[in-house]
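Q: Can someone sanity-check these two? First one:
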Amino acid sequence: MADAAELRRCEDCGFASPEATGFQRRGGGLRRTRALCGACAARADDRAGRRAFLQLTLLWPMAGTLCLLAHRLVAAPASESLASRLGWAFLNLSLFLAGLVLVIPAHEAGHALVGRLVGWRVVGVTLGHGPLLFERVLAGIRLRVHSWPWGGFTLSAPRAGSRPRFLRLRWLAILSAHQRCSLAATGAVHTGLDAARCILAGAHVVQVVSMLLQHGPEHLRVLREELSQWMERRGFESLERFRASLNLHGCPSPEAYERANYMLVLQGWSRG
């Protein structure tokens, strides 16, 4: 295990990890920059999105209107003043950001279209953040529209062939972020790279029964060499240096990650 001095901690919830890759910096400007885990960073991004939406819809248009009214009351109608320039600048900036918000649906539709074209299963498209306003299934894709129209994401997954492996890794990444017990990964582990993926998601033990039955116990040496080469190329000296570094705590949007898995399980059950 890593020493306490080597652990990095989230400055909001106190989550600790030896890997810096699981933390993101938020803040800047007038706010103090803080190192946050994936879950806390997602909440900070949501708060920032709400502030930006408030500025877009209320503060900047109001400031622009007030500046233009001040110009009309103080300066001559045909002249230009600082208030006039500021007023038009605020209004133009508001219109520009409103245009960006209108582009978001087309942007996410492009993600969904590309996913369908490459043969992936597009699970859902979410627009905005905050309270849910609208939800409906269109062409097999669950569309969700939230009250804060700032950002969005598209959920997709590979189809049948690689689904079991990805499903195991997803749930392993979720459980390792919430449970302190040791976790074992089993199934679809055929190479050292497969073992590395499981450890990145949070596994403490990796089972390779089918490969040993097929190639014999000496195949463990091959898997270990492949894993050692992978670690050496990336500068990892021990398994603890990268274990669980890609679990739910390092995810930019933990809520979307968990909901994607929930929707995948429901769809798989309905087809069974």
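And here is the second, same format, sequence then tokens:
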Amino acid sequence: MMQAGSPGCLSKSRWQVFELQPLCHFRNPSSSYGEVIGKDKDPRFTVGYVGYSATTPVVYLRISASFLTAEEMGGDYYDYLQLSPTTFGIVIGDATGHEIPAGILVAMAKSCLHTLIRIDASVESVMQRMNEMVYETMKTMKRKLLMSFCYVILDTTNSTLTFSSAGHPPPYHYRQRIGKLDTLESFAYPLGVRRNIVYQAQKVQFQPGDIFIFYSDGIVEVENDKKEPFGYERLEQTIAESAPKIANVEELKSAILQKTYTYCHNLSFTDDATLVVLKILP
């Protein structure tokens, strides 16, 4: 299983994103354009960013992700996408099943996605074309594999996150200034159920300090020794309790994972589990 968030998924001519603590810099458009290379406080993480005039406001994103497979080859997928100097995409998905069939579907989804965003990166277009790809591929393979999929675009020109979901667990948006946790719900069939599905895009505003959490169902479905799932309520409670106290995304991600490990008494996960935490830095 390829780890899509690893270095090299973004265009190396402008960006380098590292797995543990990637720091992404965005500037709003202006007439003065230039490319600048900067360094994070931690010298291990060198990042590139597209620079405009020094007077334009900068939006900083910090991302941390973890990916755990239940089998040797997994069916979870996440990716970071440089769409333009002011837009940044994140995808997370989960192919049904495990091992080779799920891995093939994930590889095809990644290849298709990176082709589509060069033509039309809008949420509605990508969701529709991805669904068509999965549907037609599974029909050709004569296997009924589906894929949950969530695609989001952060736009720094208007501080919005546009998103749509195809049967994937809803992301969370922690609004730091008011201490509120929102669920970003978007209901639709997973990719591949029907060929002609219209996926609607929704928008939310974000502010400095806000946090977005993306995850696969392996996080909420991990069970304790009584076969009781961790569940959405425990996940929401963990985020609501931890986010106000933990500023670092790596530590917040670790706190969430530690809760799941403790709940299942450090037993092995029975499904792939992916967790991506993104923060809009002040």
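A (reply): Looked at the second one. Residues 34 and 276 are 30 Å apart (CA to CA). The longest strand covers residues 58-68.
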